[in-house]
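TASK: fixed-backbone design
INPUT:
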């Protein structure tokens, strides 16, 4: 059985439904990817690597992971911290605004749980995924330990997968981000950047610019996303362009990239070609953006994937 580890933060989501009603769910980029991967490729063992607390919301979050058939052996329970949370509101013009409480979340402490024993177990994996958000979230003073773990996994033969997913507000400066991303790209075997994410950081404006920029690194598999525009991939120096069929009924683009990543990686772990994996990832993303919120209802998602042939 193939397996993949998704390291990062899942948060409590509070969504304003009306003046008096909040809907509570759970979301976070790596968690969203893990959910969509597992729903599409149940034969791939899919683990979340994170830290929660000992509070009731943490317990409910853990139950949600389990109800999505995610492996939770690397979901650690911090003795005093609690999960991060965000509030999302959509105004009369459809414009979304977010408020976050995540600066002291349990997930910031995840690296402190990655002891020798855990690293040994993670070393058995096929892929280890983290994003720019995962990097921004972990405690600054845990970064050195984190990179040591990533290097250990890589030398054990685990494929390192990185999505830069840049969120300016999570970083102190662009220079700090670039230093961390340089380490990430330097270790990555697979990367799945979006053009928009890298524009501010490296002044790149097209998929071709991104491929050109990444030439300084030794990355085997590059998948560049650009909203409804073509996806460009590079595998062992062979470039391919993949046409995306735009969907018309876009309701909420949250987690388009996350759904794409999860399903793409699930497809690759299941032996699909790059071209097939991109098409499946794109189908998943196209289905997800026609639903509100980060996690689309299971039946709707599964129907869309069945139509795509899985
Ligand atoms: P992110 O969520 O990282 O900003 P993108 O907007 O680049 O991600 O989109 C990720 C993927 O989602 C794209 O590569 C594409 O497959 C799919 N996608 C995004 N927007 C559309 C759209 N309007 N129609 C169809 N597919 C889309």
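OUTPUT:
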């Amino acid at each position: 059985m193939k397996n993949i580890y998704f390291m990062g933060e899942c948060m409590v989501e509070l969504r304003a439904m009306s003046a008096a009603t909040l809907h509570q769910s759970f979301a976070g980029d790596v968690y969203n990817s893990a959910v969509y991967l597992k729903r599409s490729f149940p034969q791939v063992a899919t683990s979340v690597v994170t830290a929660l607390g000992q509070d009731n919301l943490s317990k409910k979050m853990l139950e949600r992971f389990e109800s999505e058939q995610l492996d939770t052996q690397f979901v650690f329970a911090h003795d005093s911290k609690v999960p991060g949370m965000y509030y999302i509101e959509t105004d009369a013009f459809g414009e979304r605004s977010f408020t976050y409480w995540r600066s002291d979340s349990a997930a910031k402490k995840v690296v402190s749980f990655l002891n020798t024993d855990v690293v040994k177990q993670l070393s058995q994996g096929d892929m280890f995924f983290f994003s720019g958000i995962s990097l921004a979230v972990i405690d600054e003073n845990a970064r050195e330990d984190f990179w040591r773990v990533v290097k250990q996994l890589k030398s054990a033969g685990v494929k390192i997968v990185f999505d830069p997913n840049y969120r300016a507000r999570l970083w102190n400066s662009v220079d700090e981000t670039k230093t961390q991303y340089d380490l990430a790209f330097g270790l990555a075997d697979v990367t799945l950047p979006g053009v928009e994410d890298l524009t501010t950081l490296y002044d790149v404006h097209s998929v071709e610019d991104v491929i050109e920029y990444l030439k300084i690194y030794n990355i085997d598999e590059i998948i560049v996303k650009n909203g409804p525009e073509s996806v460009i991939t590079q595998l062992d120096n062979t470039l391919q362009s993949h046409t995306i069929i735009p969907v018309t009924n876009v309701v909420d683009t949250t987690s388009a990239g996350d759904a794409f990543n999860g399903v793409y990686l699930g497809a690759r772990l299941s032996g699909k070609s790059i071209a097939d994996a991109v098409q499946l990832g794109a189908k998943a993303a196209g289905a997800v953006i026609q639903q509100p919120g980060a996690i689309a209802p299971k039946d709707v998602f599964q129907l869309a994937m069945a139509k795509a042939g899985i």
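COMMENT: The pocket of adenosine-5'-diphosphate is lined by residues 194, 225-228, 231, 244, 246-247, 250, 253, 256-257, 260, 282, 285-286, 289 (CB under 6 Å).
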